[in-house]
Amino acid sequence: MDAIFHNGEAMPYPKVPNHIVDDPTPRDQAIYVPSISPGFATAVHEGQWSRALPQGVSASDLNFLDPANPLMRLSHAMTSAGQALKQAKPCIITERDRSGTLIVGDSGGYQIASGRLTINGNADRLRILRWLEATADVAMTLDVPTFPVIKNPALYRFKSTADCLTETLDHLKFFAANRNHNSGTRFLNVLQGNNQAEADTWYDHVKTFDFEGWAFGGVLRNNFYEVCRRILIMAREGQLQGKSWIHILGTCELDTAVLLTALQRAINTHINPNLRISYDTSSPFRMSAYNSVYTLPSFTAKELTMGAKDTPDDMRFIGSQVRWPWPSPIGDRMVMADFCVPGHRHTRHYRDQLSETYAAHHNLGALCWGIATANRVFDAECLNHDHTIALPVGAAAEAIEKVISSGSMQTLSSFAGTFANLRHGKLPDSGDEDRAY
């Protein structure tokens, strides 16, 4: 597409870094951004494997951030200060082609929430700020997540949402005063809150800081009634019109993917033609720890899901020329002998580091294909309004356009039941505030 439509008029896409040439994700779709583990990023860059790769695959083919990669190319990825701040080795992120990639940087909020990162004053803030400016094109401001207040109150350093907000405001003041505007990094102001009232209070306090976009965190971020409500408030207050990016933290579900695409298109059409939406998870890189791999997307009349099963792992696969069972760019080139190798005495699995790298690459490729396929199906079914899969999602996708085009809270309220029918939906003010992060 060479143009978008804003308020009914065709407009060329602005020449800003919100779209990468030959990006696998179309420019009118929300972008899935995998959060790459430092171990994977470093091992793939080094490419020093102790055994042969599948026939026709070279070590460099595992670097999906290479724009010329013949196996699989992704243009967007995430890295987190909470994991990679002290990583000194070069990796596929630090050595990337910056003209053909966009890195989203997380400031470490998740690690703060899990107790693995503590901020002790301005020296820690400055270290994270400078790392984000050196590493990322788009980055989260430093925040203190609120979900552990209700999930792990006895273990969390912050005992209330008010405590989280107070600390976050100190972080925001520091970032606003000390950021290097010449770095080119666009910062996203992170929203938190465990219920609607908390989310409103949080937003009202942090909106006074002028950054380039927004990030949605907290337990309400997958609740599309609340997401649309926040978008309407932002649009009414002029907090979207000059922004370039919205990021939704910690989600990669197929239904969420197509709904975020619907939301981006509605915002582009009616509010801001130059805003992108992205969303992330680290799940492709963490699934091996649970002995799990992605299989195939499942499309039924009720839902869209990405299937997963136990990782194939058996001594009878060692040396086997039977093909890897699940489709993906790397999976289509593997046989079981590539994946299963004689086990080590410290593990019960028949795989090594290269096997784990294959699993992560496969999971990522399978998930991206599932997301792309879900978007394709919904593009077709939304065009003729004949939904045959995930009927609640189809209804919500059409509701999003009507809500954003109207700019009306009354219109949003009329679709409360539609949004409540979604997997993460609930009726407004139902009191169900205890949903997983």
Structure description:
The chain is an alpha/beta fold and 437 residues long. It contains 15 helices and 12 strands. The chain has helices at residues 38-46, 81-84, 109-113, 122-135, 148-151, 161-178, 196-206, 224-236, 254-270, 283-286, 336-339, 353-384, 391-406, 409-414, 416-420, and strands at residues 3-6, 9-12, 31-34, 76-80, 102-106, 138-140, 186-191, 213-216, 245-248, 276-281, 292-299, 304-310. The protein has an 8-stranded parallel β-sheet with strand order 3-10-9-8-7-6-5-4. A two-stranded antiparallel sheet has the order 1-2. The radius of gyration is 22 Å and the shape is globular. InterPro entries: TGT-like_sf. One of its GO terms (biological process) is tRNA modification.
Give me the secondary-structure topology.
Elements (H helix, E strand, L loop, with lengths): L2 E4 L2 E4 L18 E4 L3 H9 L29 E5 H4 L17 E5 L2 H5 L8 H14 L2 E3 L7 H4 L9 H18 L7 E6 L4 H11 L6 E4 L7 H13 L8 E4 L5 H17 L5 E6 L1 H4 L5 E8 L4 E7 L25 H4 L13 H32 L6 H16 L2 H6 L1 H5 L17
Parallel strand pairs: 3-10, 4-5, 5-6, 6-7, 7-8, 8-9, 9-10
Antiparallel strand pairs: 1-2, 11-12
Helix pairs in contact: 4-6, 6-7, 8-13, 9-12, 9-13
